[in-house]
Design goal:
alpha/beta, 25% strand, globular
């Protein structure tokens, strides 16, 4: 099995080193094509107004001066064009990608681009801050990741779906199990601004991001992580709200 690895924390990130060790337990044909610098929260951004460069760092490891989506496109159209991968793994992200976060996430975007180009794809993220400590137990992803990926690949999933795995910020032996979940929704607004005065006049702003817990229902990715489980969420790109569509179809039917 040929595997492509990407991420949004950058090709030199600790999570990429963890992902490479996970992938090494699945295959001896592993390639890395990932952003040269951190691209967290890049979502599905594509670089259209600047040239992109690809630099070979070592055998089968390439850095891209662009986003996670750029990286997957360059991997499949250039670096691996003659022999495409069988699987795309994106991560392991430094921090969770849950609920509304998945639409911001460059980690999820890398997997979505692989899926869009016909390759089965999985996004992997490691939660932080839920259990009180901000340090990340990378060993949890490394210990539980390989067997979980093997089981998922053996089972298979629809061609228009990616799988988003979130590992809880617990020690490996404290993980309670695996839950198959739906995307949750927080009950408060995460985004904010920090407005500051510039010494030369005017204002500038830092965007902020909340960190308090919500109260999610059972069956959601949020609840699974809160309770110490690994969350596996099938995601797809169809954002259509079918109930509203049906309501408007009835209104405009004449």
């Amino acid at each position: 099995m040929r595997i492509l690895l990407t991420n949004d924390d950058g090709v030199r990130a600790e999570g990429m080193s963890v992902l490479r060790r996970i992938a090494a337990q699945l295959s001896d044909d592993v390639w890395v094509v990932a952003p040269d610098t951190e691209m967290s929260a890049a979502s599905r951004g594509v670089t259209l107004h600047d040239p992109i460069r690809v630099k070979k760092l070592e055998n089968r490891v390439y850095a891209v001066t662009g986003t996670p989506t750029d990286s997957v496109i360059l991997a499949l159209k250039e670096v691996m064009a003659n022999h495409p991968p069988d699987l795309v793994l994106s991560g392991v992200n430094r921090g969770q990608n849950l609920a509304e976060d998945v639409t911001f996430s460059g980690t999820v975007a890398g997997a979505l681009q692989g899926m869009q180009m016909g390759i089965p794809a999985i996004a992997l993220s490691l939660a932080r801050g839920f259990q009180g400590a901000m340090s990340l137990p990378w060993e949890t992803a490394e210990e539980h990741g390989p067997d979980l990926i093997k089981r998922l690949v053996a089972e298979g999933w629809p061609h228009n779906v990616i799988l988003s795995i979130n590992f809880p910020d617990k020690a490996p032996d404290a993980v309670k199990g695996i839950q198959i979940t739906r995307q949750g929704h927080r009950d408060f607004q995460m985004s904010g601004i920090d407005k500051r005065s510039h010494p030369r006049g005017g204002n500038y702003f830092w965007l902020t991001y909340g960190a308090r817990k919500s109260n999610p229902p059972q069956g959601t990715d949020l609840r699974a992580i809160y309770d110490g489980y690994i969350s596996v969420t099938p995601l797809h790109t169809d954002l259509t709200h079918f109930d509203t569509m049906a309501d408007f179809q009835e209104v405009f039917s004449d």
